[in-house]
Amino acid sequence: MRIAAGLAGTLIIGLAIPSAHAQPAPLDAALAESVAVNGLAGAVAVVADGNAVTLSSAGHADVSTGATFTPQTYLRVASITKTFVAAAILQLVGEGRVQLDAPVETYLPGLIRGEGIDGATISVRQLLRHQSGLPEYFDDTTEPPNQPVSPRALLSQALTKRGVAPGHLVPVYTNTNYVVAGLIIESVTGRPAADEITRRIIAPLGLTHTYFPAAGDTGLRAPMAHGYELVDGRREDVTAAEPSGEYMAGSLISTSEDIAAFIAALLAGRVVAPAELAQMMDTVPWPLHGPGFGYGLGLTSIDLGCGVTVWGHGGDLAGYHSVMATAPGRPAVSATFTQGAPNVTSIANDPRFAVLTSVYCRG
Fold first, then answer.
1. Does the keyword Isomerase apply (predicted)?
2. Prediction pTM value
3. What is the Cα Rg of the chain in Å?
4. What are the residues whose beta carbons fall under 8 Å from the beta carbon of 134, sequence distance 6 or more?
5. Which of 15, 128, 133, 154 has its CA 20 to 30 A from that of 67?
6. Domains of the chain, with CATH numbers?
7. Which active-site residues does the annotation give?
8. How far apart are CA 4 and CA 27, in angstroms?
């Protein structure tokens, strides 16, 4: 049933039974305002509340053709990948094949070495919670690769830099942690991390629109959302990207519908066992993002300031800025803006925070 048409609107799919948690209007308004005020190309969000799946969108999935978003529009979900990786590690923990407090050296002997870096002093838990002290493998001074690159090459790049002592209370977020986590999955299982996560999580949950692109596959499957950024004041299409440069830190491609289904399943205990889910939800404060933020094992907690704390993760790559979240007894949401908002100085003026408050703080 089409509820609204044009550049901003809502589509309700499946068993669309009205409920206290499935009113789309505030989310429609949040997306439309963010796109209009910031001059963005587009935004798409799905709210999954039981059997009701509600799509909200604004702008276009492709500004050159005027294509609109659907629940199955493919997107780069960036660091949301990390939650899939952490969940796979926690499954291995539940099977007794990985120990969270064992040193990385146990699973990758001799590999994590550098100035101020020793895999024997870094635990798996510290990797997943960004407390390892490992440096970032690329930063603002490093161009992303435009040719296929191996995860060990990414790690080698990080190991040319000086690390800091592991175990600091405040997480220092680096993608290198999840490159190493992916290598641990491969070492323990004997299979590529992408294949193992697909076998353990993506396929069992029926996430048929979620996949890891092969190295060299710089596009997305159709229908896809193009990603855009401002370059010298002009909007440029930045959709194409070499996925191997992100590896298990952020290469996953999915849809709003699949990501909402994933975070709902994870918090409902259908991905990892209760004991392992409790480990994922064991957070430390993450003041970089604000007083209400915590980081666990591939999961972020956010106190929205309205009596609701949500669990999920964000993701940022050129042209794709995403968030997924849910809370006990609440719907799950997945949202992506296909262009970065200018002048975002804090979480408070990040359009994704407006999405969360529109869904969870409606009174």
1. no
2. 0.93
3. 20
4. 112, 117, 122, 127, 158, 163, 174, 176, 177, 180
5. 15
6. 27-361 (3.40.710.10)
7. 79
8. 13
